[in-house]
Amino acid sequence: QVQLQESGPGLVKPSQTLSLTCTISGGSITADYFHWNWIRQPPGKGLEWLGAIGYSGSTGYSPSLKMRTSISRSTSKNEFTLQLSSVTPEDTAVYYCARYYESGHLFDYWGQGTQVTVSA
Description:
Blueprint: E1 3-7, E2 11-12, E3 18-25, E4 34-41, E5 48-54, E6 59-61, E7 69-74, E8 79-84, E9 93-101, E10 106-110, E11 114-118
Parallel strand pairs: 2-11
Antiparallel strand pairs: 1-3, 3-8, 4-5, 4-9, 5-6, 7-8, 9-10, 9-11
């Protein structure tokens, strides 16, 4: 059973960089055909895909956030990290990490989500 767990600060000041880590258990970050995603949900709004890192280490980002987003991974720790720079209160959201199964075309495992608030 794959489990994903987000971790990081719950409060970030405006203009700072938000950094979150997703730790994977029960599966490998390098396993073929899986992509590891960051998704968020602002209050009262729908889900927004931020970006992903694939099993080969390649990355992809939402065009609207590409300039502020970076996703990296540690294969030794079996985890991947989101960094979102120059945050504003509009970046306040519940942030989720999720696994996308390429062959099945679906997000099959999700973390529980972590609330991040951007406020001075």
